[in-house]
Amino acid sequence: MRIYVPVTFATLTDEKVRSGRIDLAPGGEVLAPLATPEMTSDEVEEAEFVALYLAADASARLAAASPGAKLRLVLSCDVPDGSLPAPDGAGQITLTSPLEGARIACAHADDASQSVAIAGAFRELEANEAALDDHDLLWYDVSELGDIPGL
Fold first, then answer.
1. Rounded to an integer, what distance in angstroms lies between the CA atom of residue 4 and that of residue 10?
2. Partners of 7 in the beta sheet?
3. What 3-state class would DSSP assign to 4?
């Protein structure tokens, strides 16, 4: 099962994360695509895109509460089916128990060249959250976690 984990760049300082694994604590929020077996591959892709950008919104809220944060960051992780509670109607899952060693498949981050505009949006997040939608997230392979600009 693919989940999207909103984090801040401080998460990437953890050596375990840099090696491609992340531990998730109870109470943490992750997002999952609301896909069903009946969906076409295009519909599943759209559901994944929606979950990714909902996680990006959650990452913006985390960043807004973190001094010095300038960019959004979402980790795409693979976890065993059935290892998490079912998502709510928006795809959000609140972890009820620890999830150790979730495999990071890739990362999605804002373009570092946009950090001034994005950090500005964080200062007045409620008024500017829609403006963040104009900034696409860039894709990074798990082997590039330590090299994401803005770290």
1. 17
2. 73
3. strand
CA distance 56 to 130: 12
How would DSSP label each residue in 14-33?
Answer: SHHHHTTEEEE-TT-EEE--
β-strand pairing of 73-78 with 2-7: antiparallel
Residue 93 pLDDT > 90: yes
Q: Which two tokens stand for residue 146?
A: 């330590």
SS3 of residue 105 by DSSP: strand
**pTM of this structure:** 0.88
The maximal CA–CA distance of the chain, rounded, in angstroms, is: 44
Distance CA 27, CA 109 (A): 23
Q: What is the pLDDT of residues 35-61, one digit of tens each?
A: 888 999 999 999 999 999 899 988 888
CA gap 61, 41 in Å, rounded: 31
